[in-house]
Write a structure and sequence with these properties.
- By secondary structure, the chain is of the alpha/beta class.
- It contains 16 helices and 11 strands.
- Helix 6 (149-160) links the parallel strand 6 and strand 7 (168-172).
């Protein structure tokens, strides 16, 4: 028999089930990192640790990948929600007319990476000496993947600087495996595009290759998205690029841009090598707007990241343009009155139609420019296409 108590129990049960279910539900997000044992993997683990503190209903997992190029493909296929990607790889894929990846947001700058060729040597050697080592012998070079950014950059450099590749054999493996191989002398060189590897920095029998000024200028003229980076002393140069933490717009909106930036804002307070490097990058961005302009200004950057870095956004450009035009117009009239000594009323009556036409043309020009900028931003947000 269905009693009043049974009815009350049934109502309570129906009320509690959705609450229990919503508490148990957890949405999973994937961060694409890099090879296990490398800086990308360690960084992704640190990012996941911070992001998992946002809310219990969100869980962030780290997957190993072949690096930046693989990561951008995983974002494009929506296998991953977030990823660590080098700026040049992002640029090459972001604005591609054919198969560009869309709806990405730059959430955090991480660190400056360097192109490093570790070699069996007691001291840093110039590229010319490295080239001579390759002549007439079999040479084994370690890479995390032949599809990685480091390997592709090495092949481009080899082509530009006339390196003979016929005697080179690429050995693929994880960072840890390749580090052990070069330590034991089973590899002649190990190519990376990352932060310097702590496990190799102080090895007595392992050093690095550097480029002279002429070589750097040639490389930068063809690899335009890469910058010049100091690897040893001021004369020992290599190529560099900043790495970025990206997210798919749909996944970012689920969590909230402000919550993500807030969770990552204290990354530099962690006591580890990676967090120290991120802290240096953030400090540079906050105190030098030129670094922002050269690194992030042409990318879809999170608004909350801009606030965090202290980058000012001028939203009222049309109003500012109108005010500046009116001020300029007033200064012209004052100049006529003050220095040409004509009566201001006479000038107004005689030339007002010309002056007003100039003012209207200037205002229309400025409004058109602002409208074009607004339309381009709107187009990018909806289609991922940017001119």
């Amino acid at each position: 028999m269905f009693t009043t108590n049974n009815l009350i129990a049934a109502i309570i049960y129906l009320l509690l089930v959705p609450c229990i279910a919503s508490g148990a539900y957890q949405e999973n997000f994937i961060i694409a990192s890099g090879s296990k044992g490398g800086n990308y993997f360690a960084t992704a683990c640190l990012l996941a640790q911070k992001l998992n503190n946002i809310d219990k209903q969100f869980h962030f997992s780290v997957v190993t990948t072949k690096g930046s190029i693989d990561n951008i493909h995983k974002l494009k296929s929506r296998f991953a929600d977030f990823a660590i990607v080098q700026r040049d790889v992002l640029l090459n894929n972001l604005y591609s007319d054919k198969d560009g990846v869309k709806n990405l947001i730059v959430l955090f700058p991480l660190f400056d990476e360097k192109f490093i060729i570790y070699v069996q040597a007691q001291h840093p050697i110039p590229f010319e000496e490295f080239r001579q080592k390759l002549e007439g012998k079999k040479f084994q070079i370690g890479v995390t993947s032949t599809e990685s950014t480091s390997c592709k950059t090495f092949l481009t450099i080899a082509q530009l600087l006339g390196l003979n590749l016929s005697n080179i054999k690429f050995i693929e493996g994880t960072y840890d495996a390749l580090i052990e191989k070069i330590k034991q002398g089973n590899l002649d060189a190990f190519v990376i595009f990352s932060l310097p590897l702590k496990k190799l920095t102080h090895q007595k029998n392992i050093s690095f290759v550097y480029f002279n000024n002429q070589q750097i200028r040639l490389l930068q003229s063809r690899l335009r998205n890469l910058s010049i980076s100091i690897i040893g002393n001021s004369d020992q140069k290599t190529l560099g690029i900043i790495s970025l933490f990206l997210g798919i717009e749909h996944s970012v909106k689920k969590i909230g841009e402000n919550r993500i930036i807030k969770a990552l804002s204290n990354l530099s307070q962690e006591k580890c090598f990676i967090s120290n490097e991120i802290g240096k990058t953030i400090t540079q961005f906050k105190y030098n707007n030129f670094i922002y302009l050269s690194s992030l200004s042409d990318l879809p950057v999170s608004t909350h990241l801009m606030y965090f870095l202290g980058i000012k956004q001028y939203k009222y450009t049309i109003i500012i343009s109108v005010l500046l035009t009116v001020i300029a117009f007033g200064l012209v009239l004052y100049a006529f009155y003050r220095y040409i000594n004509y009566n201001l009323a006479y000038l107004w009556i005689r030339y007002k139609h010309i002056l007003l036409e100039i003012l209207i043309i200037c205002l229309l020009y400025l409004i058109c420019i602002d409208t074009i900028i607004y339309a381009e931003n709107k187009l990018y947000l909806t289609s991922g296409i940017k001119s």
